[in-house]
Amino acid sequence: MLRIGFVLSPDFQMMSLAAASAFEFANLTAGEPLYSIDFLSAEGGPLATSLGNTIDTKPIGGLGHDTLIFGTGVALQPTPPALVAFAREAFHTTRRVAAICVGAFVLAEAGLLDGRRATTHWLAARKLQAAYPRIRVEEDRIFIIDGSIWTSAGMSAGIDMALGMIEKDFGADLAQSVAQRLVLYHRRGGGQSQHSELLALTPKSDRIQTALTYARSNLRSSLSVEELAEVAHLSPRQFSRAFRAETGQTPAKAVENLRLEAARMMMAQSRHPVDVVAAETGFADRERMRRAFVRTFGQPPQAIRRNARGAMAEDIPG
Fold it and tell me: Which among 11, 68, 119, 285 is least surrounded, fewest beta carbons within 10 Å?
């Protein structure tokens, strides 16, 4: 039986414990105790959660865990020195060390991510890269494995990561059965960018939101200001003014970002030729799409595809 330890800080986000359900259901699905689960904290005892209640924890150290998973709150706060030291020690004493969401900052502070690929929630990814430039932060990944270190994006991505651990430990069939029980994808398609672009645009009015939803669903259309204004039931001038006021972007820039988001996802996940991707996402031709990729991502579309395939081969090897 493999022992899993969730290492928690005060006021940790309860959602981070959702990953524990994957291991629980692995036991239920297999009909035998494959995993045991401990909740740990620096001193042990009752620990406050993000909901204001408490959870009983064991003190860190000396429990012989196979896997340690570090979880924190959604806000970036100083990590207790004892947890940083424990993370550093865990690298040498456990088979696998992981972090959910901004728990990656704990591993980064311990120096465990230096020279490695890692991810975290897209809102914190650039902060992680700026604070720890030796890390190769890949902000569009759901989770990443680099050697014995695992990192996931947001809290729900911790479940994806747990499914990946189950697959690596006991095979794809069990992981798929657990995912079915949890009504989840065995391997979720797409990266964080499928959420981040529309979430970054936070219009206050239903009219602008309706126009954005229409744009995302009709990328092959011209999506001119006139077309979007008609969807929003505003004049083009009113629409442009309201759109910039509510999102901080021009309609043209927002449309290009949505096209880029969709095109990057298609390049990473499909085998469609570049010309087809350009047509499906509304770019006039492959050259226009290439220039937009280089300007925004620093790489042409083909490089995005190569990197995605290489990363997929590294994560969940046989």
Answer: 285
